[in-house]
Amino acid sequence: MNLSELQDVAYKGRMPRFVGKQLAEWIYAKGAVSFDEMVNISKKNKQWLAENYEIGREAPVKATRSSDGTVKYLFSVGAGRVIESVYIPDRDRATLCVSSQVGCKMNCYFCATGKLGFKANLSAAEIINQVLSIPPRPEKGFEPMTPLTNIVFMGMGEPLDNFPAVERAIEILTAPWGLAWSPKRITVSTVGKLPQLKELLDRTQVHVAISVHTADTAQRESMMPAQKAFPISSVMKCLSGYDFSHQRRLSLEYIMWRGVNDDIAHAEMLVKLIGKIDCRVNLIRFHAIPGVDLQPASEERMIMFRNYLNQHGITATIRASRGEDIEAACGMLAAKN
Ligand code: SF4
To answer: Which residue of 118, 197, 263, 273 has the smallest Cβ count within 10 Å?
Structure first.
């Protein structure tokens, strides 16, 4: 719930309006998991709240640790459904990769989540719960965990296919009465679903990452069915109307497959597609998944590709791969459990 909805709850319970603000503080800033903890709310009001509402916090049901410190969390979201979130520490930073749907409709050929098909949209509460319930208290035998500094909507699902819940989650994450995060710490990744991409750009300030993967349109359509409905050229045209040179960052994601999209011809096509749009390119190592006959590009090819982009004035980096040993890396989330 946002602040005005919490104020409505207070109103319904015949409490002063400011109780709505207190509820927001307890739930979001202080991370309360029960009404009992809310010491500045009267006993009678707490009782009414507990009878009529629930905080909705759910701890992860399972945590799997990678040798590199990455942790994959499994959350139950009811009806026997589960989702995964990935905690990625990196020196003094820690990023949480959150899921927005159970499964995904986009059916990208190279993605384990896509193979699950679509099961359900997550509610804003289920998205926020991933953030609030991670990291749990430091476990025995492990180093204390770095508090979250960044959130990326890059887990299971296409965030813009569940835009109302994602937008609401962003509101709660960034509002002063919510978690009060800067939108600069949040990135939403999408295949480029229109017109929701435009809505995201107009109505929020978060960073945007577009899954491009190849600038060859026929090839993109064969690997990403979304290309048919949302051609990458239309996506880039939409992006060209926004300023990504200051506060807001645009990244293009490019998974590299051996002999598929890792040659100079593809680098040239990508340079052409980008044109004058301010962005950076993240080159991503592919992680083999069962039943998909794609192989990762070689290190040399990735370096060559990166150098070509850099020489053409485009900032490109090879993204360090994390959590591969626990199937938590890009495209590997499938909630086998
Ligand atoms: S890559 Fe993203 S959009 Fe494509 S199927 Fe996987 S989760 Fe869905």
So the answer is: 263
Catalytic residue list contains 279: no
Please, which pLDDT band fits residue 329 given cuts at 50, 70 and 90? confident
Render pLDDT for 128-143 as a digit per residue (tens, 0 to 9).
999 999 865 555 666 6
Return d(Cα 328, Cα 326) in angstroms, integer.
5
pLDDT digits (tens, 9 = 90+) for 268-285: 999 999 999 999 999 999
State the architecture of 62-326 in CATH terms.
Alpha-Beta Barrel (3.20)
CB of 109 within 6 A of ligand 1: the answer is no
The CB of 111 under 6 Å from ligand 1? The reply is yes
Q: Where in the chain are the domains?
A: 3-52, 62-326
What does 241-295 look like in DSSP terms, one character per residue?
A: TS--SSS--EEEEEEEBTTTS-SHHHHHHHHHHHTT---EEEEEE----TT----
Ligand 1: does its nearest atom lie under 6 Å from the Cβ of 161? no
Q: Is 103 in the pocket of ligand 1 (CB under 6 A)?
A: no
Beta bridge partners of 111: none
The arrangement of secondary structure in 3-52, i.e. its CATH architecture, is Orthogonal Bundle (1.10)
For the entire predicted model, the pTM comes to: 0.95
Ligand 1 atom nearest to CA at 105: 8
- Distance CA(275)–CA(239), nearest Å, equals 12
Probe ligand 1: pick from 83, 98, 110, 111, max atoms within 8 Å of CB? 111
Active site residue 58: no
